[in-house]
Amino acid sequence: MELNLGLLTTKAECDTAIEITTAEKTLLERRLRNLGESLEDKAERTTTVKEGIVSVKAIIAGFESALSVITDEKEKRSLELKIEREETKLKSLENRNANYSSVNVLEDQIDHQQLEAQVTVLTDAITQIETHKTTLAA
Asked: How far apart are CA 110 and CA 24, in angstroms?
């Protein structure tokens, strides 16, 4: 949809429209910057959490296979406690994975692209208003 710049009939109206649009653009640019920083952190944490899950599952599997060959009851109980601790770690990582999942990262990337598009639209609008303002009489 094209802007109906004919609605702006004075330079003062153009100045007001530029001021309002610039303020909105500044707000969106701030949100875009914050989301970009958050997105980098979230993508990194997502990778770390996924790697942690794989690692803890491997540790649990190793402990469980060792558990089947250990005969000493004291050692067996010690290993069972280690397995429980690792299972607790795994649950914690899986909960974190819900917050830092690949789907959440993708959603944030989509939001980032939408904000970029909005900033572009506002930049173009400001340029058009400024150009229109030059055609108006003082």
From this structure: 20
Positive or negative, the CA dihedral 42, 24, 115, 98 is positive
Look-up of token digits 């974190």? 96
Predicted confidence (pLDDT) per residue in 10-55, tens digit = 999 999 999 999 999 999 999 999 999 888 888 888 888 889 999 9
What is the C-alpha separation between 38 and 32, in angstroms, rounded?
A: 10
Q: Is residue 93 classed exposed, middle or buried when 0-12, 13-18 and 19+ CB atoms within 10 A define those classes?
A: buried
Determine the pLDDT at residue 68. Answer: 86
Q: For residues 95 and 124, give the distance between their C-alpha atoms in angstroms, rounded to a whole number.
A: 43
- Going 118 to 124 to 125 to 127, the CA torsion angle's sign is positive
Q: Measured between alpha carbons, how far is 70 from 34 in angstroms, rounded to an integer?
A: 53
111-128 pLDDT, tens digit per residue, is: 999 999 999 999 999 999
Distance (Å, whole) CA 129 – CA 123: 10
